[in-house]
Every structure is written in structure tokens, then in C-alpha cells.
Write a structure and sequence with these properties.
- By secondary structure, the protein is α+β, with helices and mostly antiparallel strands.
- The protein has 18 helices and eight strands.
- Helix 7 runs antiparallel to helix 18.
- The two termini are 39 Å apart.
């Protein structure tokens, strides 16, 4: 028994039993979560935990390795990347050594449902059978399947989710909970605007449950773009070649679905001044910043306005009640340091936009539909 305990201390588990069960004889609802996490780990790796080539690659050791190295290659290409991120995050949290660090089974089920929604959205968003890039935004490839929550739960018959406990988790309290959303986006990214429209719908549908703080952060798809601007349609033709027409048709359809008419008329170019103005707007209130992002997107994507034109920027600022914008923009250094710092802090580790961080922990990317945001709000406040 001494040897078993020493092994558990080093490895973090022995088969499906958590540390507290072997070391202290303690069994809690979080012990079931641990066992379920081990099953999830086997689903990811398509092998039993105690197989010689897999033993010791889990627990804390797994967090230090690249998780992708241990994904079963037969299913790795079948699941959308965003779904994988949620799924693997759940797995790692379930097998934490300390019971208090593990989620409840109700939380696990909610997050698995979120992963499934991301997978379903990947199927809907798919254009071709392979990856297609649009302004650094990945259109996730079509999948042949996804995770069935019910089937996963049935893998471990001794795990049960208390309906009353799950109901409490889902319903929460009558008091409004705070949802803070940090959004990294670029003002010339069409998917960023689509994501904003869907986010706004989700907020409108749930503002009786939550108080929202939306903070917009800069990202530059093309930081070297000229300030004087270049023809938008010609730019996309040069960048994407023969795929540009297909992409324009696709974006037109996507915009139509959110009640907008997509236009490639006008110029595109450097977005730094627009990000400086968005930063300035935040100093006068998050609502004004949010409204300014809307005005800039409407003008650029549907009216042929140039995102680097100070006249357009000032007109947009005036519409949402921002004061002092003209004096601010006149000085090219105003807000520049702050924007550059935010580019490092919020955009340094991401490769595409839009990118959302909800309550500091829960991450989404792409032009997600309202229902994905709604589920994410639930997960983030549980």
C-alpha cells in the first residue's frame, strides 16, 4: 500500500480512482468527476490509461506537454479546433489532483454542450472540405461527427448528474450576474462585425439575467497596410486570387443573414487611427466605445467608407456622442502607446479575430451565432 501511495503522489492517479480516495478513503461528487475525466482522456487518446505507452502522460504531466501530441490521429482531423479546445480543457480540469479544483458534473455537462455547439457551427460555417483563410479568420473544416453528450455520460454508468443540483447550476439566482467580455478585433475584419451583431443579439436576449461589460481591444490583420488606402476589391483580388469572388459571395450571404448588405466598394488600409479612436471612446464609457465600433463597421462594410479617413472617423464619433475626438486624432501620438500595449497584451498570443474572452477564462473565436454566446454566458457564470 505504501508503494501504491507513493506512485499516486508522483503520477496523480491510479486508473479511475482519484488521489483522495486512495490516500484518505474519501469519496465525493468531485471523485466521480475525476473518473469521468479519465474516460474523457481515453476518448481523446483512444487507449486505456494503464497502457504502458500512455501511463504517466496524464495529470499534471499532460498539462506540461503539448496535448495535441496525445490526440488519436484517427479523430484529430474530424473535430473542429474550437471544439477540441473546450473538450481538452474540460478533461484537464476534471483530472486535477485537488477535488476543489475540479468542476461539478453539472458544469462539465454544460461545457460539453458548448463544445457540441461549436462543432455544429463549424459544420454550418464550412465552405470547402479543407481550411480556407479569410483575413486570418479560419473557416473550420466540415466534420463527419461530434461528441454526443449522452453517449459520453453513458460511458461511465456509476456517474450520475443530480437533476436538482443540475437545475440549481443552470438556473442560478435571481440576482443578475456580471459577464465581462474582452473582444479583440480589427475594424476591417468582416467576421468581427458578424460576431458583434450576433453578440448583440445574445446580449439583448439575456440582459434580464446578466449585466454586461464589453471591452474592445485592437488587432491588426495587416499592420503594414498603407495609410493612404487602396481599392478594397483589388486588394482582396491580389491577396486571395481566384478565391476572392467566392469569398465575396460567401460574405454577402453571411451579412444578409444578419440583416446587412455587404459591400466591397471604397478603400481599405491601415486601421491604427480607428483603433486609437476606439481606445479614446472607452475613456468616455464602454457604451460609447461599443456604439462607435458599430458605426465604424456599418460605414466600412456597407457604405464604402474608408477606415483611415479622419472625416469618416470623426463623423462616427459625433454620432455616438464622443467629445474631443478631432483634437485627439490630430496628434498621431495620442493613444498610440496605449494601443500598442494592448496589441501586445490582448493580441500577442492570438492568430485571428474576432476573439472573445468571457469572464477572464472562457474563450471563443470566430463569428459565432447567438446561441453559442448564450451558452458561453451560462458556462462563465456557473
Amino acid at each position: 500500500m505504501f508503494l501504491v501511495r507513493e506512485v499516486i503522489k508522483e503520477v496523480g492517479f491510479l486508473h479511475y480512482s482519484p488521489v483522495e480516495t486512495f490516500m484518505e478513503g474519501t469519496v465525493t461528487d468531485r471523485s466521480d468527476v475525476y473518473a469521468f475525466g479519465m474516460v474523457l482522456l481515453e476518448v481523446v487518446g483512444a487507449r486505456r490509461i494503464l497502457e504502458s505507452d500512455y501511463f504517466g502522460v496524464t495529470g499534471e504531466a499532460l498539462e506540461k506537454k503539448c496535448v495535441e501530441e496525445n490526440i488519436d490521429p484517427k479523430i484529430k482531423g474530424k473535430i473542429a479546433p474550437e471544439c477540441w479546445k473546450v473538450f481538452i480543457d474540460i478533461t484537464l480540469r476534471c483530472i486535477k489532483k485537488e477535488p476543489d479544483e475540479r468542476p461539478t458534473m453539472g458544469e462539465v455537462e454544460v461545457e460539453l454542450e458548448l463544445a457540441l455547439l461549436l462543432q455544429e457551427q463549424a459544420d454550418v460555417t464550412n465552405i470547402n472540405s479543407d481550411y480556407t483563410l479569410l483575413s486570418k479568420t479560419i473557416i473550420i473544416p466540415k466534420s463527419d461527427g461530434g461528441f454526443d453528450v449522452a453517449k459520453l455520460l453513458n460511458l461511465v454508468p456509476f456517474i450520475s448528474v443530480s437533476s436538482s443540483r443540475y437545475s440549481r447550476i443552470m438556473s442560478g439566482t435571481s440576482e443578475k450576474k456580471l459577464v465581462r467580455i474582452d473582444v479583440s478585433s480589427d475594424t476591417v475584419c468582416p467576421w468581427c462585425f458578424v460576431g458583434k451583431k450576433n453578440l448583440d443579439k445574445a446580449i439583448a436576449a439575456s440582459n434580464d439575467k446578466y449585466n454586461f461589460e464589453i471591452i474592445w481591444h485592437p488587432f491588426q490583420l495587416n499592420p503594414d497596410a498603407p495609410k493612404e488606402g487602396i481599392d478594397k476589391r483589388e486588394y482582396y483580388r491580389r491577396k486571395f486570387g481566384s478565391q476572392s469572388e467566392q469569398m465575396e459571395a460567401r460574405m454577402s450571404e453571411v451579412f444578409k443573414n444578419v440583416g446587412l448588405q455587404y459591400s466591397l466598394s471604397g478603400l481599405t488600409g491601415n486601421t491604427m487611427d480607428s483603433h486609437r479612436l476606439i481606445y479614446f471612446a472607452r475613456q468616455q464609457g464602454l457604451d460609447k466605445q461599443h456604439d462607435l465600433v458599430e458605426e465604424l463597421n456599418i460605414g466600412y462594410f456597407t457604405q464604402g467608407k474608408y477606415i483611415g479617413d479622419h472625416k469618416f472617423l470623426l463623423e462616427s464619433a459625433a454620432k455616438v456622442g464622443i467629445e474631443g475626438a478631432e483634437e485627439f486624432l490630430k496628434n498621431p501620438n495620442s493613444g498610440l502607446r496605449e494601443v500598442e500595449e494592448e496589441l501586445k497584451t490582448y493580441s500577442g498570443n492570438i492568430t485571428g479575430v474576432p476573439y472573445y474572452v468571457i469572464n477572464g477564462n472562457h474563450k471563443l473565436s470566430g463569428g459565432q451565432p447567438p446561441e453559442v454566446f448564450l451558452r458561453a454566458f451560462q458556462v462563465a457564470t456557473t
